[in-house]
Design goal:
The chain is α+β, with helices and mostly antiparallel strands and 356 residues long. Helices cover 61% and strands 7% of the residues.
């Protein structure tokens, strides 16, 4: 039996797995292209970033289909391992660096490029471009480039969850470990199911059909994501003189309901209780104890009035900003007391279904 003949059952199984993945993306586009992870990562322990990475990768079918396409093109385990190693090196580098230094590129733009990476792999497979060692070297550079871009997308999604300021590097590395575990699990599941489907796939044209599927899914996704990015409104980044960004202030998740809504400058804020109601959709207002009495009175009246329902406030002696408001996902930071900005931030959160 020749090498090409012995390779066919393996390629048939992988092609069947890719077709399954393409069908999954077409059947559930909302989930497949949204990367699935939502919520806030600020309160997660460091080790919880491993399952977070696994979840992200298992729901990131664009990543998995790209890897499956590269493996199918490689045709042999040694070359496939080399290409996947190059891809892992690329996305790990930009994921860790971009997150650690705070680079935040447009997630929508990166998603479009990732979709086009599927088109690239599909076209290369259809035209049968390989056959010379130098061409594999060029393809390796292309895989590295797409890996770097994939890593920027991973970083953007991770930063959108909000990250604590302490222990950031360790959390990003653990998230990356979870990504690699999820990558292996996802491909393994595809191959197992593909092996079952391959019993019914007898045509040697199955790989070309799989490549064509990648091209179609990649083009459709790129167009759809471009339209969505063009029509989406930019998220609010400023309210008056205040700024809004991802929450970076962690709170303990243990505790109960605070004994009262507003804690005076000489009192200690019950952080455990604040963390508890944060999960119930409350807004936490932290202020410097040295606020002027007139300003403090305005804040107290707002928090304790019917308008401030589901708002709790307390002093934060070590806080650099005069006032800061926090919900489960975002944080309002003000260089001076701005009651109008606080009202808008709170009302916007109450209108968000996630606050319910």
């Amino acid at each position: 039996m020749t090498a090409g003949t012995s390779m066919w059952p393996r390629r048939r199984r992988l092609a069947a797995a890719m077709l399954l993945g393409v069908a999954g993306v077409i059947a559930t586009p909302g989930t497949a292209w949204a990367h699935g992870i939502k919520g806030s990562a600020v309160d997660l322990d460091a080790w919880e970033f491993i399952p977070l990475g696994i979840e992200h990768m298992l729901l990131g079918w664009d990543h998995l289909l790209f890897i499956a396409g590269v493996v199918l093109l490689a045709g042999e385990m040694r070359r496939a391992a080399q290409m996947i190693s190059v891809f892992v090196a690329g996305h790990s580098t930009t994921l860790i660096i971009a997150t650690a230094v705070g680079w935040h590129v447009s997630a929508a733009a990166v998603d479009v490029v990732i979709a086009l990476s599927l088109v690239f792999v599909g076209i290369v497979g259809i035209v049968g471009w390989f056959g010379h060692r130098d061409r594999w070297r060029l393809f390796g550079f292309a895989v590295l480039g797409f890996g770097l871009i994939h890593g920027l997308g991973l970083s953007a999604r991770l930063q959108d969850l909000g990250l604590p300021e302490d222990g950031l590097l360790a959390r990003v590395i653990l998230f990356n470990i979870g990504i690699e575990i999820g990558q292996l699990l996802g491909i393994a599941v595809l191959l197992v199911i593909g092996r079952l489907i391959a019993r019914f796939v007898r045509s040697p044209k199955a790989p070309r059909v799989a490549y064509a599927g990648l091209v179609v899914v990649g083009l459709v996704a790129a167009v759809a994501l471009s339209v969505i990015a063009a029509t989406e409104e930019d998220p609010i980044t400023a309210i008056g003189q205040c700024t809004v960004g991802p929450r970076t202030q962690p709170f303990p998740r243990e505790g109960g309901h605070p004994a009262k809504d507003f804690f005076e400058p000489a009192e200690a804020s019950p952080r455990d209780d604040f963390g508890h109601v944060l999960g119930d959709g409350y807004v936490i207002v932290q202020y410097q104890p040295t606020l002027a009495p007139t300003v403090l009175d305005q804040l107290r009246k707002y928090v304790t009035s019917p308008e401030g329902t589901r708002v709790v406030g307390g002093p934060a002696p070590d806080q650099k900003q005069p006032i800061r408001a926090i919900n489960a996902f975002e944080m309002l930071t003000c260089p001076a007391f701005d009651l109008a900005a606080l009202r808008q931030f709170t009302n916007t959160w109450y209108a968000d279904p996630r606050s319910q």
